[in-house]
Amino acid sequence: SHSKREMKAFLPYKAEMDADAGRTLSLVNDLRIAIESDQLQLFYQPKLDINAGVVRDLEALIRWRHPEQGMIPPDAFIGIAEQTGQIDALTRWVIREAARQYNAWVEEELLLSIAVNISAENLKNQNFTAELEEIWQEFSLPMDALTLEITESAVVSDPVSAIGMLCDIQDQGIKLSIDDYGTGYSSLAQLKQLPVNELKIDRSFVDKVYSDPDDQIIVRSTIRMAHDMGLSVVAEGIEDAETLEWLGEQGCDKAQGYFISRPAPAAEIGQWLKEKDKAISANA
Ligand code: C2E
Ligand code: MG
Ligand code: MG
Ligand code: MG
Predict the structure, then answer these.
(1) What pLDDT shows up at residue 23?
(2) Which top-level group of life is the source organism from (predicted)?
(3) How confident is the model at residue 12 (pLDDT cuts 50, 70, 90)?
(4) Which are the contacts of 189, defined by CB distance < 8 A and separation ≥ 6?
């Protein structure tokens, strides 16, 4: 397979590698095991519906419970999974685990939808849509309960093929969300061609928005543009009440961030969702 070829290229240089590269190599080997055993775990972070003051949607975020290195965040291994041909297997694991957990929450009537992050590499797999539909339907779940979050860069490298794939995905009823919006190089013209449902404003524009007039202009006009295009808007990285309140005033639809809830394991988030009287508002 592709990944085995990569490994052969890596191994002879082992002796010369510095500590960082050594760590990376060991992660390459360990990741294969991690995907097949139970070392991967999904954390979940609520997407608050600002107007209604309720959470009906979650985003799944992967973690790796490494036996020696402890909890490894996704930024430290998603790139490795992409480069070593393991991202398809990893994404299948994520979709299946999200489906299983979502199914349990649906039975308790706790949720409407769940979002998972996918990689640009996933869009190069011609069977991606079919695979994901098959996994989702093992649990007889409606396709429109699934949202895929992709970054702008996933589309920029090969727009024609990516857009074709995204259209297929949307034809299945799956929702699409543009993650980290504003950090990539996509143009408005490209965004207009994308069959997306949701736009997530990157946290770098949100974290100082309450005090920074430039960020206010950017966020306000992005919300307006997205709404004019018929997209729902999520702001990432809300860490205080003032920011949440300000976003609500601008008509932003949903909010995510430590102020609302940190990403947490399923058991903890399930409990959190059940506390119906929990006041999540700027006035709390
Ligand atoms: P993302 O999808 O943009 O996720 C948001 C990241 O911001 C998460 O980091 C989350 O923990 C963090 N975050 C949320 N609220 C706040 C806040 O208020 N303040 C701050 N400072 N940070 C906040 P995490 O979980 O480490 O994930 C990092 C990235 O890794 C994700 O960014 C996503 O691009 C990628 N990722 C996560 N899970 C998966 C996965 O299953 N598959 C793929 N392909 N990528 C994933
Ligand atoms: Mg995301
Ligand atoms: Mg994001
Ligand atoms: Mg991000």
Answers:
(1) 65
(2) Bacteria
(3) very low
(4) none
Q: Which of 117, 153, 199 to mutate to test the pocket of ligand 1 (most atoms within 8 A of CB)?
A: 117
Residue 8's pLDDT is: 42
Rounded to the nearest whole angstrom, what is the distance from the C-alpha of residue 79 to the centroid of ligand 2? 15
Cβ density class 233-258: b for 16+ within 10 Å, e for less: bbbbbbeeeebbbbbbebebbbbbbe
- Under DSSP, the state recorded for 184 is S
Range 96-107 burial, b when 16+ CB lie within 10 A, else e: bbbbebbbebbe
| End-to-end Cα spacing for the chain | 54
3-state secondary structure 112-150: CEEEEECCHHHHHCCCHHHHHHHHHHHCCCCHHHEEEEE
pLDDT confidence band for 27 (50 / 70 / 90) = confident
Which helix (H) or strand (E) segment holds residue 200: the answer is strand 198-201
Instruction: Compute the distance from residue 202 Cα to the ligand 1 centre, in Å.
Output: 11
- The pair of three-digit structure tokens given for residue 161, joined into one six-digit string: 């093929």
- Nearest-atom index, ligand 1, CA of 151: 34
pLDDT of residue 262: 97
Q: Whose CA is nearest to atom 46 of ligand 1?
A: 117
- Residues 94, 116: contact at Cβ < 8 Å? yes
